[in-house]
Amino acid sequence: MIRRRPIFGWIAFALILVAYLAAAGVAFYAYGQTLDAFDPGPPWWALTSQLAVLPVGILCFLGLVLGIIGAARREKPGWPAITAMIFSLPGFGYVAFAAFIWYTVTLACSSPPGACGF
Prior knowledge:
Layout: H1 7-35, H2 44-72, H3 79-108
Helix pairs in contact: 1-2, 1-3, 2-3
């Protein structure tokens, strides 16, 4: 049997780490932007869900796909691919929750005029 280096597994693992770092970086940025805001605006968690949802979703999807490829190739060691596949799932949960937040906010602010305080 051919011993295969875990190229896809390590790339998938790195993409998942970058996704988590992107979410943390955007949360830190959004918290700093809304810390001393005089005008009422979106809270830091809403700004984070708006800014980080696309990079986190794309990186988690790529990490999942490359993790599956690495596992299918039976790369040794296999833990980077398996870990990337497992840790990509909370990223998809984050994307779903962010979509739910913005759907709820959009629906609540659609009517009557002034419902959101603006």
